[in-house]
Amino acid sequence: MILLNHMKVKQMEKSHKYNSSGLVLGYLWGGGKGSYPAKKFQAETKEDLLDQARKALIDGSLDSGMGFERLLGALINIEEITTILVDGKEYYSKTHEHEFIGHLSEKEKYFLEESMYHE
Fold first, then answer.
1. Rounded to a whole number, what is the largest CA-CA distance in the chain?
2. Residue boundaries of the structural domains of the chain
3. Residue 98 burial by Cβ neighbours in a 10 Å radius (0-12, 13-18, 19+)
4. d(Cα 53, Cα 75) in Å, to the nearest integer?
5. Residue 26 in contact with residue 34, Cβ under 8 Å?
6. What is the reported pLDDT for 72?
7. Going by fewer Cβ within 10 Å, which terminus of the chain is more open, N or C?
8. How would you label 18-54 residue by residue, b for 16+ Cβ within 10 Å and e otherwise?
9. 3-state secondary structure of 52
10. Where are the beta strands (DSSP E) in 5-69?
């Protein structure tokens, strides 16, 4: 039994889930660079989520079918959902952070951040 804010809690379970969204940057077939929404992933750990995104960047599928000539990198928005089950009731919280993957210059990172967060 756990004491939580002076209440007796009989049962408490905790779980985490991770979701991703983001923008991928690549070379366009007609020339120049552009961005497109990244393929979304779900995983039980942040590391697994980033591994999926990195593999998709390498095999060229991270762009959700846009068809870039070559992918450079991406800004991945990671949503962590923490769920707590207390006495049969579910409570959750969400946090967000972002990670860059691939080989991006500071200017390219800035472009992706501005594109994602300042629509």
1. 65
2. 13-117
3. middle
4. 10
5. yes
6. 96
7. C
8. bbbbbbbbbeeeeeeeebbebbebebeeeeebbebbb
9. helix
10. 7-9, 12-27, 33-37, 42-43
What are 79's two structure tokens?
């949503």
Are β-strands 7-9 and 2-4 bridged in parallel, bridged antiparallel, or unpaired?
antiparallel
Tokens of 90: 């579910």
Q: Which of 77, 61, 65, 68 is nearest to 25 (CA)?
A: 68
**Cα-Cα-Cα-Cα dihedral sign, residues 34, 98, 13, 85:** negative
Q: Which two tokens stand for residue 16?
A: 């985490």
- pLDDT in single tens digits along all 119 residues of the chain: 455 565 565 557 889 999 999 999 999 988 999 999 999 999 999 999 999 999 999 999 999 877 789 999 999 999 999 999 988 899 999 999 999 999 999 999 999 999 987 75
Q: Which structure tokens are listed for 91?
A: 């409570």
